[in-house]
Design brief:
Layout lengths: L34 H11 L6 H6 L12 E4 L12 H7 L9 H5 L5 E4 L1 H5 L9 H7 L13
Antiparallel strand pairs: 1-2
Length: 150
């Protein structure tokens, strides 16, 4: 709310997150029998790919289009698939409760999205920013920048 004594001037704030991720045992990605599905999806969709964030906004001005787009596992990363609680996954993706099919789903279009380098691995990228900040970045121009105030 705005009003006398309630306005806070625009400001920058450094944010640091530190935690431990417990990765389940997994094979090297290149040994995964479903990796070919990932590569096939990449080959088939690359020519028409756009950054999912820029496409959502209808504005690519904050996208890094100087580098090739990157394919992101949008729900379950490859390295986490052996730890997936299939009952939880089944709630959002009915029909995926077969443990022998999770790997194929992880490498399918249902779990993949194209992102530019900035929105994938940059300071405001999905692999860098907190989930709440990344989601807000979809709607707030210039929300996240490199540390140092730039």
């Amino acid at each position: 709310m705005s009003g006398p004594g309630r306005d806070v001037p625009a400001h920058d704030q450094s944010v640091t997150h530190r935690y431990v991720v417990h990765y389940p045992e997994h094979s090297p990605r290149q040994d995964d029998p479903h990796y070919r599905d990932f590569e096939e999806y990449r080959r088939r969709t690359k020519a028409g790919a756009t950054c999912a964030i820029g496409a959502h906004r209808g504005d690519f001005s904050e996208c890094d289009l100087t580098h090739p787009l990157e394919l992101h596992h949008s729900h379950v990363e490859f390295s986490l698939q052996n730890g997936v609680d299939l009952a939880w996954l089944e709630r959002d993706y009915p029909g995926i409760s077969d443990p022998d099919q999770v790997g194929a789903w992880v490498e399918s279009g249902d779990n993949l999205q194209w992102l530019c380098r900035a929105h994938h691995r940059g300071p405001g990228g999905i692999h860098t920013a907190a989930a709440a900040d990344f989601e807000a970045e979809r709607y707030v121009r210039g929300l996240i920048g490199p540390s140092g105030g730039a």
